[in-house]
Amino acid sequence: MAFLSGQRASREDQRPKATFAELFTPKLVTVLREGYGLPQLRADAIAGLTVAIVALPLSMAIAIASGVNPAQGLFTAIVGGFLISAFGGSRFQIGGPAGAFIVLVAATVHEHGVDGLLLATFMAGIMLVVIGYLRIGAYIKYIPYPVTVGFTAGIAVIIFASQLRDMFGISLPGGEPGEIIPKVTALWGARVSVTPAAIGVALLTVIVILGLKRVRPSWPGMLIAIAAASAVTAFFALPVETIATRYGGIPRTLPFPQLPVFSTDLALAVLPDAVSFALLGAIESLLSAVVADGMTGRRHRSNCELVAQGFANIGSAIFGGMTATGTIARTATNVRAGAHGPVSGMLHALFLLLFMLVAAPLAGYIPLAALAGLLAVVAWNMVEKDAFRALLRSSGGDALVLLVTFALVVFRDLTEGIVVGFLLGSVLFIDRMAKAVAIEAQVPAVVEDVADSTDRALYQPSEAADPDVVIYRISGAFFFGAASTVGAVLDRIADQRKAFILDCSAVPFIDSTAANALEMAAAKSARAGVRFVIAGASPQVRRMLYAHHVRPPQVRFRSSVEKAVEQVHREVAARKAEAA
Fold first, then answer.
1. What is the CATH number of the domain that holds 511?
2. Could you report the per-residue pLDDT of 168-208, keeping only the tens digit for each?
3. pTM
4. Which residues form the STAS domain (predicted)?
């Protein structure tokens, strides 16, 4: 059966691969080809308006938390959101500024200024386009689940900490530190400047958002909460900072497009930030696309989506925006609002542009404490609390990966948390897989229960006791993690002057390290005069062994152990006949 399975897999490998056009045709084209009329446009318009209402305050809040002007959040949502929907590989993806980038963007702005941020965003866009066209997107899914949960929870903690200043209305004349412990220490030292009005506005925002989510979940709770907090602040003339008092309001039009300021020194300085933007953007966008697939039963094109993310970041940087990516919450809102396809995402961007053109002066009244309360709710929702608890209970290895990733993201560096978490998860996986590989001696076993006249054992008792035949079986993926353990067993067997049959029918995969271990065992068997027969190897396994010189006459291959035993007995009988 294993041999037949290998043949089927071989035939599947020979099927024609998807063409370039099939892999990189935007979902917008697919939807339009299916037929697009007024009913579909109406559904997309309603969904786009719904998402725009959610994205309007959120985009400004994320931009402020990232250390840039709130207008840059709107520019990102408009330009980046439009391009992601127009060129993406997902029907329902909504792009724009994301909370996950707050830490990275804030650090980049702090070290390299806005010019450095724009250049890093532009470079990240180019990297994402290259990653997509090289079809590397499929590998993003191999990031372990504990890493994504720990990473998301860590970002949520940092986002919440970044909002404490505005939430409590604290004055920090010397500026706010970037790292979490110095930040909290500085805020605690300035606690005498706490503004009660700011606390009240933040609490009002949180209460309205959570209350409407409970009693009127279909209403745009975030926008209503921001509007209510702004009205209360203006009516009572509360001593709370607003967008107008800190930033002077927002413009009513998009800026004139221009390339980011470029210099070799600046490009080299922001290169690590650009790599982090590209990596996180790929992870966030594909995770969001997977969530949309799960909600709709559709299937996204991962590499096409990454190309669109690249175009979006290039466009966002040209129009003065920040890093754009697919956003899970807004994408889920788009699906629940009844979107038909990518047109809803494009309309969401156009609605945001319309809001900016018409209502830009009103944005100046928005209190920063209200936006801080909004982001506090976002941070709380980001933490996958059930998943976090489940991973802590599931196994020691998963809990270790989760906690290490979480701690590094919060107290060290976001990229370092992802990389170390991924490497630690990979090592633990290798250890588990290595322990799952087994090599054991075979004992007599009956293949099936048949009539007495035809009953036949796969390994006859006489064969098991035959001093000229020893049969061992390897089970599991034979790779470098198990090569040393299995190789030691093979070395002990190979120095015995017997015919050695190695059953590989339960080996679905073998790598070069394992093949090299078999090559050394085969060479040792040949020097000792031991016949080495490999039985049941699939075509893929056999190709790898041939590539490492595990081939006749040093090693013989047979399709089953039974045929290998018959072959050995024929050779033994022939030798005895010659000797006689």
1. 3.30.750.24
2. 999 887 667 767 888 888 889 888 999 999 999 999 999 99
3. 0.74
4. 459-568
Nearest to 250 by CA among 176, 320, 181, 349: 320
CA of 395: how far to CAs of 45, 129, 168, 398, 517, in Å?
Answer: 47, 38, 40, 5, 32
Residues 98, 345, 80, 28: is their CA dihedral positive or negative? positive
The CA distance from 501 to 497, in Å, is 13
Query: What's the domain count of the chain?
Result: 2
Taking each helix axis from N to C end, the angle separating 343-363 and 27-34, rounded to the nearest 10 degrees, works out to: 120
Q: Tell me whether residue 197 is in a domain.
A: yes
DSSP letter at 113? Answer: H
- Chain segment 77-96, per-residue pLDDT in tens: 999 999 999 999 999 999 99
For residues 208 and 333, state if they share a domain: yes
Within a domain: 5 = no
Residues 421 and 464 in one domain: no
The kind and range of the H/E element at 436 are helix 414-436
Is the same domain home to 286 and 377?
Answer: yes
Q: Tell me, yes or no, whether 29 lies in a domain.
A: no
Q: Are residues 404 and 287 in the same domain?
A: yes
**Domain range for 468:** 439-446+457-579
Query: Residue 127 in contact with residue 338, Cβ under 8 Å?
Result: no
Query: What secondary structure does DSSP assign to 495-531, as a single string?
Result: TSSSEEEEEEEE---B-HHHHHHHHHHHHHHHHHT--
- Pair (483, 358) in one structural domain: no
Q: How far is CA 173 from CA 177, 187, 526, 571, in A?
A: 11, 11, 80, 91
Task: Judge if 388 and 485 occupy the same domain.
Answer: no
Q: Which DSSP string corresponds to 525-556?
A: HHHHT--EEEES--HHHHHHHHHTT--TTTSE
Residue with tokens 């976001």: 414
Q: What are the φ/ψ torsions at residue 455 (nearest 5 degrees)?
A: -65, 130
CB 134 within 8 A of CB 351: no
